[in-house]
C-alpha cells in the first residue's frame, strides 16, 4: 500500500495572494512561527502519519492543519501540553 505522508503546510497554501491583496507579512509570520516550533511540528507530522485516516484527511484538506494547531496556541499551556491536547482530541475523534 502506498501510504501518503502528511507534511506541514506551506505558507503559500495557507495565505495565497488574492488579486491585488498581498499576504506576504502573514506568510512571513507563519514561516517564523514554523521555524520557532519546528521540533513540535515534526512531532505533529509523526503523530499524524501514524494514523492513515488523519494523514489522508489533512492531505485532502490542506487548510485544516494550521487552524487545528492555531486553535491550541493558548498561552495557558506550554508546548508539550498543547501537543498532547491536540493528539488527545484527534484520537477522540477517531474513536467516535
From TrEMBL:
A GO biological process held by the record: DNA damage response
Domain of life (superkingdom): Bacteria
Full protein name: Uncharacterized protein
Amino acid at each position: 500500500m502506498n501510504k501518503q505522508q502528511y507534511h506541514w503546510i506551506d505558507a503559500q497554501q495557507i495565505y495565497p495572494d488574492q488579486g491585488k491583496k498581498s499576504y506576504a507579512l502573514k506568510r512571513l509570520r507563519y514561516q517564523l512561527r514554523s521555524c520557532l516550533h519546528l521540533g513540535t511540528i515534526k512531532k505533529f507530522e509523526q503523530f499524524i502519519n501514524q494514523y492513515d485516516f488523519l494523514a489522508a484527511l489533512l492531505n485532502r484538506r490542506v487548510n485544516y492543519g494550521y487552524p487545528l494547531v492555531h486553535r491550541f496556541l493558548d498561552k495557558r499551556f506550554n508546548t508539550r501540553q498543547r501537543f498532547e491536547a491536540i493528539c488527545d482530541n484527534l484520537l477522540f475523534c477517531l474513536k467516535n
